[in-house]
Amino acid sequence: MKRYYSLSDYFKKTYGEKWIKLSVDGGFTCPNRDGTLSHQGCVFCSEEGSGEFAGLIQSGVKAFASNIEAQIESQKKLLSKKWNAESYIAYFQNYTNTYKPIEALDILYKEALGCAGIKGLVVSTRPDCVRAEHIDLFKHNHVLWVELGLQSVHDEKSEWLNRHYSYSDFKRAFDLLSVAGIQVVVHLIAGLPGEGKEDFLESVRTISTLKPFGVKFHMLNIVEGTEMARLFKIAHWPMLSESTYIEWICDAIEMLDPDIVIHRLTGDAHKSKLIEPKWILNKRSVLNGIDKCLVARNSKQGIKVLE
Ligand code: SF4
């Protein structure tokens, strides 16, 4: 048993078994990419819309996929080597997965739900692309949770990120979903340039008080082809070391409400495209480091909330 509330503990507690997430590419774009808000996208957003592992995988290489079922079957085949599961979730991950007309979304979501073993959907989107008309759609299509990329509660960072939405936009979407009983997972990034530990922990504290269903923590990655890679090559700001990241994440876990499910403690990136930090490629080392740090502190999730 972990010292934090992990997603696999949530699945076991709620459904009595492990459920596997399969990342699918619904052929979306994003208003921050197609010129509606900007052509540039968020500074960290890659060509794949921050969803490098979504889609049809053949021999470890992402290939063109014309339909959702083919993507789901290819991912099931790939993951069956690692896990023996019969229950799956289709995860609409890359770009903005509510950025199509409602009728088109309905067809797409139903296609995923109709695939063998798919028990529900996860939809990742921008707060400004969540409106009242999406609520019924989510309920009818068994959307288990909606993921909102926030990264930081500090609006001055939003400009640097070229995010094109504010904390109050996020809060409006969060409230709309929460009041309707739809679970929300919030993404936060540690190590943004100009943000120290206290800035990051302030984001964590603010989100914890909202009591979302879940959070995802990411270390800032510099990936080839992004605006951030271009900026990094000029400014070369210092990145967090693995040990500092582990310390920050343990502090964050301690101040996170114990009922919030931690969906992710470190990020993924393609080795060939990752510029910095290289240590994130050894995910096992980061996760073990977090476990060891919590044991050494005799600590656990929420210990600083309960005090
Ligand atoms: S909102 Fe998401 S898909 Fe759109 S530019 Fe930002 S990271 Fe990329």
Question: How would you concisely characterize the structure shown here?
Answer:
By secondary structure, the protein is α/β, with parallel strands linked by helices. The protein has 11 helices and 11 strands.
Describe the structure.
Strand 5, helix 4 and strand 6 form a beta-alpha-beta unit. It is globular and about 45 Å long. It is an alpha/beta fold and 307 residues long. It has a 7-stranded parallel beta sheet. It has a two-stranded antiparallel ribbon with strand order 2-3. The protein has a single domain, classed as TIM Barrel (Alpha-Beta Barrel), CATH 3.20.20.70. About 3% of the residues have low confidence. The chain has 11 helices and 11 strands. Helix 9 packs across helix 10. The chain binds iron/sulfur cluster (SF4). Iron/sulfur cluster binds next to loops.
Envelope shape = globular
Assembly type: single chain
CATH topology title: TIM Barrel
H/E series: HEEEHEHEHEHHEHEEHHEEHH
Helix share bin: 25-40%
> Ligands in the structure?
iron/sulfur cluster
> What is the CATH class designation?
Alpha Beta
Question: What is the terminal separation in angstroms?
Answer: 22 Å
Work out the strand percent.
15-25%
Mean pLDDT: 92
Return the structural class.
alpha/beta
Unreliable runs: 57-65
CATH architecture: Alpha-Beta Barrel
Largest sheet: 7 strands, parallel
Total strand count, please? 11
- Describe the strand arrangement of the main beta sheet, using strand numbers: 1-4-5-6-7-8-10
Count of separate structural domains? 1
How large, in whole angstroms, is the Cα Rg?
19 Å
CATH superfamily: Aldolase class I
